[in-house]
Amino acid sequence: MKSGNSALIAGASGLVGGECLKLLLASDAYTEVVVLTRRDLGAPARHRKVRQVECDFASFGDVARELRAKHVFCALGTTIRKAGSQAKFREVDFEYPNGIADITLRNGATHFSLVSALGASRASPFFYSRVKGELEHTLRAMGWPSLCFVRPSVIVGERTESRPFERLAEHALRFAPSTWRPVAARDIAAAMVATALRSPPGTTVIESRDIPRS
Ligand SMILES: NC(=O)c1ccc[n+]([C@@H]2O[C@H](COP(=O)([O-])OP(=O)(O)OC[C@H]3O[C@@H](n4cnc5c(N)ncnc54)[C@H](OP(=O)(O)O)[C@@H]3O)[C@@H](O)[C@H]2O)c1
Q1: Tens of pLDDT along 91-100?
Q2: What pairing do the DSSP bridges indicate for beta strands 71-74 and 183-184?
Q3: By the 8 A CB rule, do 117 and 129 touch?
Q4: DSSP letter, residue 93
Q5: Which of 9, 13, 86, 179 to mutate to test the pocket of ligand 1 (most atoms within 8 A of CB)?
Q6: What residues does each domain of the chain span?
Q7: 71-80: burial string, b at 16+ Cβ within 10 Å, e else
Q8: Which of the residues in the chain have pLDDT under 70?
Q9: Is 38 in the pocket of ligand 1 (CB under 6 A)?
Q10: Fewest CB atoms within 10 Å of the CB: 32, 71, 73, 150?
């Protein structure tokens, strides 16, 4: 196993990002984990491997020089309801990841891993899926040596906030065909970290049904 890797996580306070953080901190293959957050992460930020970079995401260009790592994990995201408008949703789910990818690639990162979504496509009739598809398309065009898109169905895990629609979908899809079956945040994170450690050249797309279940 390789040692001495560094990682950067955007979205470490979220469900999938939090699972990525746990795995990276537990892994001997990583010696430093940069967490890019808009608020103090609390206890995990005091871990000896963690370097927290706190900023307002609308201006993270100000901390560009601090965003250095070999592998980048992006699990940022909001909902249209939380964001308040489609434009604000697009800012969080497209503009921020795009900006982080641009800066980290220029800073020498070699692998970028994105939590995208089932059905991501620029041609989708659904705004959410179209934004995810546009982001995938833009990242592909950046020239990353190694890129990974994970496209989960409904994500399952312990949330502090209530998301009734997702809870409903989780129950409704429990016995659905594997394409739509809900997937645990920790399994998504494990697939992302495993792929980063292999860093296959080009773009790896992991559909929801292909995420190994624990
Ligand atoms: N939930 C699902 O069922 C589902 C299904 C398929 C795909 N996805 C996609 O998977 C990704 C990860 O999902 P998740 O459920 O793990 O996300 P999550 O738990 O909602 O976490 C989202 C992360 O994004 C950050 N964030 C949100 N708005 C922000 C803003 N305005 N500025 C800076 N940071 C902001 C949050 O930071 P704070 O803690 O500071 O808010 C948090 O770290 C998302 O892109 C989502 O679209 C989700």
Answers
A1: 999 999 999 9
A2: unpaired
A3: yes
A4: I
A5: 13
A6: 5-207
A7: bbbbbbbbee
A8: 1-3
A9: yes
A10: 32
